[in-house]
Fold this sequence. Notes:
The complex is a heterodimer. Chain A is mainly β. In chain A, 0% of the residues lie in helices and 52% in strands. Chain A is built from no helices and 11 strands. In chain A, the strands form 2 sheets. In chain A, strands 2, 4, 5, 6, 9, 10 and 11 form a 7-stranded mixed beta sheet that branches. Chain A has a 4-stranded antiparallel beta sheet with strand order 1-3-8-7, with no helix packed on it. In chain B, β7 (64-68) and β8 form a beta hairpin. The interface between A and B is medium-sized, with 23 and 18 residues.
Amino acid sequence: GAVVSQHPSRVICKSGTSVKIECRxxxxxxxxxxxxxxxxxxxxxxxxxxxxxxxxxxxxxxxKDKFLIxxxxxxxxxxxxxxxxxxxxxxxxxxxxGGRKGGNTIYFGEGSWLTVV
Amino acid sequence: xxxVTQLGSHVSVSEGALVLLRCNYSSSxxxxxFWYVQYPNQGLQLLLKYTSAATLVxxxxxxxxxxxxxxxxxHLTKPSAHMRDAAEYFCAVSGHxxxxxxxxxxxxxxxxxx
Lengths: 117, 114
């Protein structure tokens, strides 16, 4: 079964509204999670690094006030797309490192398809 | 800094033919290397990974890849293509720390012709 779970898997929202995507590590604690974005027919681009208990680190060109990341616990990171616009429509996917207890490997969530209409 | 270059955005092979998807990396530290597959409208599935053990790595679905430091390459191969192998394939590189994100290549779309 999945060790990193994302919810929702698909969401449609109206332009101007906000959408929250959750990323949970199910069998391990993750002090660091990563958020990626994938536009249609393109590769995955790192948006930000989510650090438990501290502020996220954003990649160049990613608006921190638009893409709010909260990592309030060792098993949950959330990405909130604020005031969404159609150009924010994309596939958002998170990942976490399992550490020694988690097989010392990287796990990806199932991804979330966001469509802004 | 790390980066990955996938040569060929689209590769087309006949069913039963050899699959070769090319990946070259650049890394200032010893790399971990990965190949992922993405089927249409789905998430990522890990095919295989190199983590500094054996240089020839065997993965799922009959795929394998060989780490060649001298060539900074990590090409993905499969002896005989199946129709179900048609998908997008991504090569990725990371450092050894769990706090290091993956850096993905642009992807190679594999088409399999009957």
